[in-house]
């Protein structure tokens, strides 16, 4: 029995319960039938005695000189016709005029007769010459109403019980129907429980729960378990940390109630029915990769039992990746500039060797002025070195990719006005997206990127525009809801850049807005408004 599944244990238990219930019902029906048979016998004997007591023949015969000679044949015929065991007619002293056994005639009636002599018809169950009998006694009255004799009719208890046998088949039929019906119900419940518990016993389920719960709360990834109806059943410590959930969700709470702390982007992922792999979702200050799988019984057959959602925190990794990309951009720009300067230096040396010193000077001065224009502009407008270095690096990168890159500034962004990490994340990702979109255009007129920096005493407005294909009709909300990219390839990490941008803007308490300018011959225009930080 220890190895029995929950379904088998409940089936055996229910079957035993059905057997006990049916047995108790059969006994109750038998006892009830017996009591009913006794009541019917009492009523029949009392009615027969009362009928014989008012029979004119009986009244006349008990007043005759030899009542036995007249009444004994009559009593015999009544016993045969009415199917009773005895008909006894007696005088007021209890002396029998008639009886089934002739030897008992003239003897004294076995049983009290005082109540009958008082004029009442009564029932009795007494022992007599025939054994225990169910009897009825009625007084016989003369024309003046005086009790002149008594009539008693009866049937033996054994004979009355034999009549009960005719009801036993009905009781057995009812019991059998109930037993078979209960067995089928128990069998159906067993099959259902066997299916939902996968044939596991309670000890196995308890052990599995303990092991799975230990694993659930020790893994580094956040995990959410949802029921069939979408209710949040369980989550581990890491998920509570990532999403700020309460300590223990109630399994009976509505999914909507349990998800009031979960961002709308994640709710949309949880509500979907498709498999999700590493979907980018921005939650507060974190960037999460969300995977969603439905849980099905063994071999994947049958309806889904629920859903498992895995949350992986990639915030720090993506921030480091963004910073590394920025460093790579600057390194590439320096490498390109080094290569370009080497070519220009070689050109100037050759001009000097050819005796054209003045042309070499003019060439060097021209190159110096052209390189200093953007640097001087950035130094005048941006005091934050990280932002200046980023824009210079992007300018060199754009030149390598044959893109027109321009920076328009108004006002002055003082050092410390913006968080350098947030500013690099925002501008770097927006410029990268703009350059990728512009690079896909074939016309030279559309291969451009423009950065506007407008600073006031309270805020900084950063506008990044490009000559790409635009947003394709997508709104700002749609772009930021699931991540957006101008790249055509559907690679891993798609949309992470904009997710980081949105996160950095929220962290800085700014605003982010996209405009589709394709109808005006422009690409995408992204506007970021960031409040100035107070001077320390």
Automatic annotation (TrEMBL):
User: Per its record, how is this protein called by name?
Assistant: histidine kinase
E.C. designation(s) = 2.7.13.3
Top EC class for this record:
transferase
Alphabetically sorted, this entry's keywords are: ATP-binding, Cell membrane, Kinase, Membrane, Nucleotide-binding, Phosphoprotein, Transferase, Transmembrane, Transmembrane helix, Two-component regulatory system
* Origin superkingdom: Bacteria
Localisation: Cell membrane
Tell me a Gene Ontology molecular-function term this record carries: ATP binding
TM helices/strands, residue ranges: 168-189
Species annotation: Leucobacter insecticola
């Amino acid at each position: 029995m220890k190895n029995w599944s929950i379904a088998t244990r409940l089936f055996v238990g229910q079957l035993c319960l059905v057997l006990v219930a049916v047995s108790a019902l059969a006994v109750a029906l038998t006892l009830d039938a017996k009591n009913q048979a006794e009541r019917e016998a009492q009523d029949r004997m009392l009615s027969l005695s009362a009928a014989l007591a008012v029979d004119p023949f009986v009244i006349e015969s008990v007043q005759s000189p030899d009542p036995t000679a007249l009444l004994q044949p009559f009593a015999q015929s009544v016993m045969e016709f009415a199917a009773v065991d005895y008909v006894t007619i007696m005088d007021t002293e209890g002396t029998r005029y008639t009886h089934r056994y002739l030897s008992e005639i003239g003897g004294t009636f076995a049983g009290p007769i005082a109540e009958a002599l008082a004029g009442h018809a009564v029932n009795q169950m007494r022992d007599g010459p025939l054994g225990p009998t169910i009897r009825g006694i009625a007084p016989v009255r003369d024309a003046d109403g005086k009790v002149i004799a008594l009539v008693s009719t009866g049937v033996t208890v054994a004979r009355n019980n034999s009549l009960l046998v005719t009801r036993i088949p009905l009781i057995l039929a009812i019991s059998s129907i109930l037993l078979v019906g209960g067995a089928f119900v128990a069998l159906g419940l067993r099959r259902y429980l066997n299916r939902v518990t996968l044939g596991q016993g309670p000890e196995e389920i308890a052990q599995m729960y303990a092991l799975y719960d230990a694993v659930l709360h020790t893994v580094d990834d956040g995990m959410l378990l949802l029921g069939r109806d979408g209710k949040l059943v369980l989550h581990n410590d890491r998920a509570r940390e990532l999403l700020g959930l309460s300590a223990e969700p109630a399994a009976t709470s509505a999914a909507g109630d349990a998800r009031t702390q979960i961002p709308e982007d994640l709710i949309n992922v949880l509500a979907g029915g498709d498999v999700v792999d590493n979907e980018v979702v921005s939650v507060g200050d974190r960037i999460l990769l969300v995977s969603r799988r439905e849980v099905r019984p063994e071999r994947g057959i049958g309806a889904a039992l629920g859903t498992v959602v895995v949350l992986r925190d990639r915030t720090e990794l993506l921030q480091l990746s963004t910073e590394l990309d920025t460093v790579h951009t600057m390194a590439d720009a320096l490498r390109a500039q080094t290569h370009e300067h080497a070519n220009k230096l070689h050109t100037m040396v050759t001009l000097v060797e050819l005796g054209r010193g003045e042309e070499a000077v003019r060439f060097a001065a021209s190159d110096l002025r052209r390189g200093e224009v953007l640097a001087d502009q950035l130094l005048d407008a941006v005091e934050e070195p990280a932002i200046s270095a980023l824009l210079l690096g992007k300018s060199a990168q754009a030149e390598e990719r044959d893109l027109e890159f321009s920076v328009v500034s108004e006002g002055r962004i003082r050092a410390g006005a913006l968080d350098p990490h947030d500013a690099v994340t925002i501008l770097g990702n927006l410029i990268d997206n703009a350059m990728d979109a512009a690079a896909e255009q074939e016309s030279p007129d559309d291969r451009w990127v423009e950065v506007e920096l407008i600073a006031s005493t309270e805020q900084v407005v950063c506008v990044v525009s490009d000559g790409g294909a635009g947003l394709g009709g997508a709104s700002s909300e749609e772009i930021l809801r699931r991540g957006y990219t101008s790249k055509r390839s559907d690679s891993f990490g798609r949309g992470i850049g904009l997710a980081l941008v949105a996160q950095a803007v929220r962290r800085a308490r700014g605003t982010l807005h996209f405009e589709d300018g394709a109808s005006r011959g422009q690409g995408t225009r992204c506007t970021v408004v960031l409040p100035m930080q107070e001077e320390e």
